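Hey, quick one: can you model this chain's 3D structure?
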Amino acid sequence: MAKLLHRLAELKMRRQAIQSPSGGPVLGVSSSMARLATQVGRLIEHPEIPVLLVGESGVGKEVVARYLHNLQCPQAPFEALNCAAVPNTLIGSELFGYEKGAFTGATQRHAGLFERAGRGIAFLDEIGDMPVEIQPVLLRLLQERRFLRLGGGQENEIQCRIVFATHQELRQLVETGAFREDLYYRINVVQIVIPPLRERREDIVWLARKFVADFSQEHPDSPRFLSEVVCDYLTSCHWPGNVRELKNAVLRACVLNNREVLEIEDFAYPQSETGGAGMALQAQRQQSEKDHILATLRSHGLRVAETAQALGISRKTLWQKMKKYDIRREKLS
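Sure thing. Here's the predicted structure for all 333 residues.
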């Protein structure tokens, strides 16, 4: 009976982890992210199998890893390490730990990533940058599920799930000799590809509103909202930096502007920084704003007061924008 109650409590916790506190999705509203969430959900019954997350920089690989963690073992540790950010001379001790006296300065035992992760998840980001000399040690750990601390003589068993992530083509790294082929096959058991933001545009407004809501929650005296024209504009952008770039753009707009309802000009990039790209972005913003004003005018029977209210701007501002874009009601009627 106790086991059954424990199992029911565990399933309830996992169901809660699938959705946000408001009851909505966690990873996105697009069909591709819904399929991805389903794939991740199937992994929780096989914690011993490594997972490889693949996607461009900024798509949210760590977000997906944490989503898996919340489903599988929310009460256990989540330990992350960026392999590209740790010097080659230190990455071994960071992964496997070391014993007291293992080297000069090792005044006490240090638990490595896999040991600290316990029964949780060890997340190795940018695995393609793992030094070649460390790769055989990692391969043995995956094969045997055991490891040695540096300077130690007794093997330790790992109990965590290991999640790898990369924005690189590991197969190409294998061909150039930068990545061991046997290690590649060992970590590439379950590969989950996270699509770039430009291929799931349904998520752009959902993410932007989420970032604005997070900002407003942290700064209740300075709430922010997105106008509909801004939502259309954000959806039309390419976002080569993916979710990370979108988040930075939203936060910059929230911080640098005092008005509650953000407009397209709040997302402007300085021309001096982007050159021709800045001019292209400006033209894109203006065309998007003009199209949205025209559509809103038509849907409200060309009535300026109702259109301004629907756009979240004053009638004066709407008249100014209509003059700017040469929008004349007599031409539309």
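One thing worth noting: The longest helix spans residues 276-299.
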